[in-house]
Design goal:
Layout lengths: L1 H8 L3 H18 L2 H17 L3 H18 L2 H17 L3 H16 L4 H17 L3 H18 L6 H13 L6 H10 L5 H17 L3 H20 L4 H7 L4 H13 L3 H20 L7 H5 L4 H8 L2 E6 L6 E5 L4 E5 L6 H4 L2 E4 L2 E4 L20 H4 L5 E5 L28 E4 L3 H7 L10 E5 L15 H11 L19 E7 L4 E7 L3
Parallel strand pairs: 1-6, 6-7, 8-9
Antiparallel strand pairs: 1-2, 2-3, 4-5, 9-10
Helix pairs in contact: 1-2, 2-3, 3-4, 3-5, 4-5, 5-6, 5-7, 6-7, 7-8, 7-9, 8-9, 9-10, 9-11, 10-11, 11-12, 11-14, 12-14, 13-15, 14-15, 17-20
Length: 512
Amino acid sequence: MNVGLAALGMRHYGEALASFNEAADLARPIQDRVILASVLGNLGVAHFYLGDFEKALFNFQEAGREAQAAGTAGTQNLWLMDTASAYLELGNLQEAKKCFEQALKATGAMESPTVMADIETHLAFVLYGERNFEAAKMYNQSALHAAMRSGDPAAELDPLLLQAVLAIHQPSGEDPERMLMQLYRKSAEGPSLREQIENTFAKFYADKNQPAKADLWFRKSIRTFEDQRAEIGDEELKLPFFANGDAVYRDYADFLIASNKQEQALHLLDNGRAKTLSEGLGWDKQKSAASFERTIDAQTVTRKIDGTILFYSLGPQSSYLWAVTSHHTQSVQASEPVRDSDTGQKLSKGNFKIERPAARGESKRENPLSNTGGPATALVTKGSRIFIIPDGILNGLNFETLLTPGTDDSHYWIEDVTITNANSIRLLAAAAPALPSRNTDKLLLIGNPVATGNGYDRLINAFAEIRGLENTFPRVIGPCSHNRMRRPPRILRVSLISFPTSTLLRTELQAN
């Protein structure tokens, strides 16, 4: 465990994870709950700094349970604080506030100014997120006083940042620009804080209608984030780390869109995704940093792939859709923020609303993206070849299984268009030569997997439906028996959809 703590202190998060996992494996058999709580909590810390907040939350909660079982109230409270921080990063302000308040109540008896300052600062950030500026200011001032009593100058930095942010939103005679610059000079040893200060500077200048300064500081914040990511040696760990810079990229994109630079915003967001994915795939080692700065013409890409690109960007404050054809790029904004709990199984393309059939007993809610419409609709016509670049919860959605709107002629979207999922425009351009031609014959097969558990009903009509396919396509599908199917007599593009697992698999079947 000490090796992991040392690696964590040097920001070698991959090494820290390996050491903590080994320590956990040793602590479990001997049922040393005190050690196990510490190991699990520090595993959460490593995942937290890597941007994998879901895993961080899980480990913090597990550490809290182990600490409670071991009877170490002080340690349990520390992991409760970190649980709250993970909730905050995941956007769950309600749970974050609840956990911070519980931690604050428990810490009061401990009279630890450092811990008190940390909790009150985070609680102030939660209240700021709720736009309760007065309460946020009160807690932040208390946090700053506690940090000063602790004698640790580093404990003062976060309260000072929020103090400057509050001064921007609630002018009180203080100079937020001067406050931010003073803090910026103290942030050299903390790249994460430095990134936040640079992003705050950028948004401050954007609000002051000073676009040149805003653009400069946005670029600085992204560079600081990318420098942090470059320090991570394990390519797999770079993928979740992007969550730490997601807000910076989105804020810059919002600024570009507000400046009527929609295509630059598209390039920015796509570039961030492409760089992350290419690193994970090992492609980035063969590319210079300058290659990612070169703009990829999305319209040129659509001509190469002979299709239309739908690029989604879902954010907590604003969500966008870009529809790109060979001669036109159209961007539209959702009428309201799109959150996972709102989106669920709903989605739309332009103002061409498509949704899953409602589950048994489920009421249909209005699709939060249904009003993104306008000219984008005209770019997606029947017979189009569509390349979907999803975001957030949309990555887990099978677009082929969505229904078109209407009560009389509602049908699956796959009947109108050919759909392919992609991860970024830049990587799509690299894969363009390997894509199948538009005139490839298609057949949709819906299988009848063996149902396990009680989560999904059996497909009772599947056997009859497959028999119907045999009769409709006698030259393609031979007699089906059990799970065996005769190979088609020619190359065929087949899409296989498994509803119980909600996954899509495409494959090429070669003729005998």
